[in-house]
Amino acid sequence: MICPKHSKKRYTLTELVQEKKAVSQSIDFYKIFRVFLSRWYWVAGTVAVALCGAWLYLWYTPPIYQTGASLKLEESNPTLGTGGQMPMQNYNYTDKIQAESFTIRSNEVIANAVKTLDYKVSYFLKGRVRTTELYPNVPFVIEIIKQDSVNFDRSLYAVKAVDDQHFEISVAENEHQKSTYQYGQLIDMGNMTFRIKDKIPGNSVYQFKFNSKEDFIGRAMGGLNIGEAARFTNVMSLSQTDGNTVFAADILNAIMKEYVKYDVIQRRRSARQTVDFIDNQLGFINTEAGKSGSTLANYKTQNKMIDLGSSTSMTVGKLADFERQKTELNIKLLGIKQLEDQVNNNRSKVEIGVDLEGDLSSGLGALVTQLNTLLANREAKLNQFTPESQPVKQIEQQIANVKSSIRNSIQGMRNNNEQTIRYIDSQIAGVNQNLSTIPVKEQNFVKLQTNFEVNNKVRSYLSEKKLEAEMNAAAIVPGASIVNPAYPSYYAISPNDNKAYSTALMLGLASGFGLILLVRFLNPYIYDKETVEGLTNTPIIGVIRKFPDYIDQDSRQALSLSKPKSVFAEFVRSVRTNLSFLASHKESKIICITSEISGEGKSFVTINLASTLALIEKRVILIAADLRKSKLHWAFGSDNKRGLSSLLSGQATLEQVITHDEVHHIDFIPSGPIPPNPSELLHTAAMKDLLKKLEEDYDYVLVDTAPVGLVSDAIPLIRSSDVNLFVIRSGVSQHRAANIPERLSREYGLSNLAIILNAFGDDALYSNYYTTDYSRGGGNSTYYYSDYSGYSGSGYYDDENRKWWMFWKKK
Known about the structure:
By secondary structure, the protein is α+β, with helices and mostly antiparallel strands. It contains 23 helices and 24 strands.
C-alpha cells in the first residue's frame, strides 16, 4: 500500500525529517457542521428541557391582563359675566399631560377611586396549581361586625364547607389548625369580628383576606401607565395591568371618574376663594357705607344743608370716581400679592385664585402652567433620586428660571398698578385743591358726600363681581372628559405563550451548541490525526481505528489475524507497509514501541503489528521490555516466571526465556519477575548484546517498552533501535503527548521517531475543524495511510459500523 508518487524512491527517516516542512491546514466548514451534527441529541435534549421549562413556567405563572382607556383634556373653562371671556391658553400638550399624570397618580385620587370598589374582602379559589382571585364574584357573603381600622390581620384564610350547617376555617399558612363554625356564628380572629352568612359552595377550597383602602393604592398605582395617545393632541392614554382583568377595568374607570371630579373640585375651589374674598370686602364696605351714610345725613340735618350746586356736584362725582378706581386697583394689588406669595413657596402648586379681572397678564397663565409641570416633575424625581442628585438639580434650576420670569411679570403688573394709583392720587389732589375755594361747611359736606358715594359705588362693584364669580363657579365644567372607558380584556399580555416557547427554543439551541463548544474547549485529549499534525512535526506512519467489538482485557487475540477482512486489520497492514520506508537500508530492524503513559495501547499495537509481519513470512520476535508492569505475557498465556529480567540478571539463558507462539507464528520473550533495578538492567551491555544477537536471527525485533512519560527505562532501548514508534491513543493521550517525540529527538539526537495514532474512533465532536493540505509542504505526505472514514457502509469490510438508516442493505 505505497502511494504512487513515492513508489520510485525510498527515503530514510533522517532524510524525511530533514525535508519536512510545516504542513498547510485550512478550515473545513463541513467538519464544523459535523461537530454539531455528531451531538444532535444533546441539542435536542437541551431544547426539550427548555420547552418543558417554558411549559411549566406558563402553567404555574398567573396571567397578567391589560385594559386601556383615554381622557381628553380641555384647554379652558367658559367665563360668564360682564368681564368677558377668559383668554385661551396655548398649552404644550406633552407638558400638560405629564403634569396631569401626577395628579391622576396622587394618593387622593387613587384612594377615592378605591373607595368606590368593594375592596374590604377579597375572595380566592384555591386550585391544584395556583390560586385564582374571584373578583368581582362573591361566592359567599362575609359580614364584618368589628374591625380595627389599622391593626387587623391581613393573612389569607382558607374555608371549606363541612355540611349544610358547618364549615372549617384556618389560616392558609397553617391549614392543619382548623376550627369549625356554624353559618352566622361570630368569629373572632385577627383583631376582627365577622361572620359568614351564606353557605359555602362544596367540593372546593376557598380563601379570603381582609383589606384596607391603602392595600389597593399600591396595586392600582403599580399597574397604571399614562401617556399621550398621539403627538400634538390633548388626548391622554391610560392603561392598567393586573392579574384580574375585571379589577383592572373597574379601577381604571374609577380613577378616571375620580380625576374628573377632583379637577372640578379644584377649579371650583379657586372660584370659591374669589367669592369668599369678595364677601370679606363686601362686609367691610357695607359697614363703611352705613357709617358714611349716617354721618352724611346727620351733617346735613345739623347744618340745614339740602343740596350742592351743579358745579360742586360734578366735582363730587369726579372725586368719587377717582376714589372708586383707586379702591379697585388696591384690590387688584392684593391679588398680585397673594400670587407672589404662592410663587415664593417652593413646594405648593400655583393657582391664580383671586382674580377679579380674569388673567393677571396675557403670558402669566402659560408660565404658571409650566411652573406646575416642573413642580410635578421634581416630586417624581425626588421619589427616585436624592435632592443633591444631578437630575433634581437640573429641574430646580428650571424652576428657578420660570419663577424668575413670573416674578418679573408680577413686578411689571405691580409697577403699572402703582403708577396708575399715583396718577389717580394726583387727580384727586387736583380736585381737592378746587374744593378748597368753597366754604368750609360745603367742603366738609363734599368730603362726606364723596365718601358716601365711593362706598356705594365700591359696594355696587363688588356685588356685581360676586354675582359674576358665582355664575362662573356654577358654569365650571371638568377640565377633562372620558373619551373611551375601560373594558375587561381577556387576552393575557404576560406570560406570552409564543414568546415563552420561542425564547425557550432559542435558549435550548444556544445551550446545546454552547455545551458542545464547552466540551470541546475543556477537552485536553487528542482525537484525530489533524490535531497531532498541528502539534508536532514528527511524522505519522499510521492510524489504527478503534475495534468496534469486544476486546478481552488480556488481548489474547491478535485481531489482525482473527478478523483479517476488518477495517482494523487493514489499518495494521497500512502501518506494516509504511515500516518498509523506515531504515530501509537494513535487512533486519529493531523497532522500539513506547508511549507517554500506561493504557495507550502500545502492547496491543505491538502484538497486532507483529502478527501482521508474520503473515508475510517475516521472522519476528517480540520482547516485553516493560520490566515494571508488563501485561504482554497474558496474550501468549505465559506464566512470566522467567523472562527478560531473568536473562539480563544471569538467572536464565536465552533459550530458556524464548517462547514460540504457534497461533501468532512469532517468538516472544516475556518481561519476567519484577526486578529491584529495572532501569539499570536495561542499561547493561547484556541488553545490547541480546539485541545484536536477535538482530542476526530475525527480520524484525519488536521491543515493547515502559512509558517514557512515567519512567526512563525505555531511553537506552530507544537509542539502540533502528525505528522508534510512539503510540498516541485517541481519547486517552493528552495534547502534551504529541510534543514528546520531538523532545526526545532534540535531547538524544534521534531522527528515527514516528507516531502511530491508536484507537481512532472518528468522533466528529472532538475532530479539528481544519484539513491538512499535504500538497503544500512535506510533513506526513511521505506515508500513505487512510482512516477509511469515508467508506463506512460500503459493504467491503466485515466490521463496518452500519448506520441505522442502512437497515435495508444486506450484509
